[in-house]
């Protein structure tokens, strides 16, 4: 196989996992609940690949063009890092720390000492709400805004006219060094913004993530060993702490991410390559903000663009579509990610069609299969379903 494209629809889960109750997520079903709440969901191209066989969405009962299944997460968590790392073959057994009551004062004092400046906030909040709450004080004092969420993240926001972007990045690197041991958070995120009180705007293009190093060799590490080009699109590079990629391409939003996928398919026509993309809008703009209509519209927009992606594939290429966790916008117990199965849709012109890949025991089965097909690995975790796709050898 020449190229494999893995597109992660960030947070597009397909129903609660058996252990969802231990995460407070009983009843979560991102795709199914969106469809039921809205009354309809028009996804003909995803349905044609087999989505209706693994998710509670309305689809015509016709033979799928792709292979389909769903995957359970083995890792102890439901966040961005655990999901993506496991997809690439690294299972996280110890959950990353979270701070639902805010950061301990002692930890904040330690960070402030390292930065040489006081901070504002230090409590859980939406990234837009906290700007409304503390943005004016930030402009007055010059102190950076610190906050967290239900995820294992330390976020620092600063107005670009008050704290230049490079200085904010420096602050975040210093915080990353402090956040170790019991406070080993998954990610430190720089959040530059602009505007004025009442109309602050986050500069998503200036966002920068400082993630932990993956705790084992990933799919991309193995691919690079055998000189296969690996391309990260969107936030993928930062999730793996920029390790294992030949090229990293930023993306402003879902549509730009898809443009970059198409562009990468064009530039790698004469190469063997692995293209790994994350479409973040489902999660960041709609899931956490409990916006059912926005989430549904984003799904339908992706579906409309799917034929272009499929059409850009050459005969030997494979497209894989999955997710890293759920974030059910109808869920009212919290605004966190939800512990759900990830969909698994696999398409290629030379692959068998309509194959039920079943319920996979781990997200790592995805990475193991890609490694198997491309002649890398085997990875430490996961079971390959290469032969189920009709690929011999």
Biggest β-sheet strands, sense, barrel: 8 strands, mixed
The helix fraction, in percent, is 25-40%
Structural class: alpha/beta
The order of strands across the largest sheet is: 10-9-11-1-12-13-2-14
Task: Provide an overview of this structure.
This protein is an alpha/beta fold. The chain contains 12 helices and 14 strands. The protein has an 8-stranded mixed sheet with strand order 10-9-11-1-12-13-2-14, sandwiched between helices. Strand 5, helix 6 and strand 6 form a beta-alpha-beta unit. Helix 4 packs across helix 6 and helix 10 runs antiparallel to helix 11. The termini are close together. The model has no long low-confidence stretch (mean pLDDT 96).
Write the SSE topology.
Layout: E1 3-9, H1 30-38, H2 44-49, E2 67-71, H3 80-87, H4 105-115, E3 120-124, H5 129-141, E4 145-148, E5 153-159, H6 165-178, E6 187-196, E7 199-202, E8 208-211, H7 219-225, E9 229-233, H8 236-239, E10 247-249, H9 254-267, E11 273-279, H10 281-287, H11 292-312, E12 318-322, E13 342-347, E14 356-360, H12 364-374
Parallel strand pairs: 1-11, 1-12, 2-14, 3-4, 5-6, 9-10, 9-11
Antiparallel strand pairs: 2-13, 4-5, 6-7, 6-8, 12-13
């Amino acid at each position: 196989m020449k190229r494999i494209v893995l597109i992660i629809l960030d947070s597009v889960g397909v129903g609660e996992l058996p252990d969802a109750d231990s995460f407070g997520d009983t009843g979560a079903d991102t795709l199914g609940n969106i469809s039921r709440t809205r009354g309809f969901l028009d996804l003909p191209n995803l349905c044609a690949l087999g989505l209706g066989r693994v998710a509670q969405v309305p689809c015509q009962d016709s033979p799928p063009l792709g292979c389909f299944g769903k995957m359970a997460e083995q890792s102890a968590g439901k966040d961005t890092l655990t999901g993506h790392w496991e997809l690439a073959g690294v299972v996280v057994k110890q959950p990353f720390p979270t701070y639902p009551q805010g950061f301990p004062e002692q930890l904040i004092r330690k960070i402030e000492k390292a930065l040489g400046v006081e901070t504002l906030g230090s409590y859980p909040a939406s990234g837009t709400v906290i700007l409304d709450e503390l943005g004016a004080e930030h402009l007055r004092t010059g102190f950076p805004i610190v906050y967290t969420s239900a995820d294992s993240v330390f976020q620092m926001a600063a107005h670009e006219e008050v704290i230049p972007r490079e200085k904010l990045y420096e602050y975040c690197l210093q915080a990353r060094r402090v956040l170790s041991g019991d406070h080993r958070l998954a990610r430190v995120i720089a959040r530059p913004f602009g505007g004025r009180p009442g109309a602050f705007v986050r500069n998503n293009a200036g966002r920068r993530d400082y993630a932990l190093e993956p705790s084992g060799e990933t799919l991309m590490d193995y691919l690079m060993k055998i000189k296969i080009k690996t391309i990260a699109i969107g936030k993928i590079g930062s999730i793996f702490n920029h390790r294992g990629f030949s090229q990293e391409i930023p993306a402003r939003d879902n549509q730009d991410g898809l443009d970059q996928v198409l562009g990468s398919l064009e530039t790698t026509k004469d190469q063997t390559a692995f293209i790994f993309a994350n479409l973040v809008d489902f999660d960041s703009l709609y899931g956490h903000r409990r916006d059912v209509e926005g989430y549904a519209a984003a799904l339908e927009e992706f579906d409309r663009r799917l034929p272009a992606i499929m059409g850009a594939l050459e005969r030997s290429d494979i497209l894989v579509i999955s997710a890293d966790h759920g974030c059910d916008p109808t869920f009212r117990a919290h605004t966190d990610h939800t512990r759900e199965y990830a969909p698994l849709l696999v398409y290629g012109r030379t692959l068998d069609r309509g194959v039920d890949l079943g319920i996979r025991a781990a997200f790592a089965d995805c990475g193991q299969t890609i490694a198997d097909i491309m002649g890398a690995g085997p990875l430490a975790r996961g079971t390959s379903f290469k032969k189920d796709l009709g690929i011999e050898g």
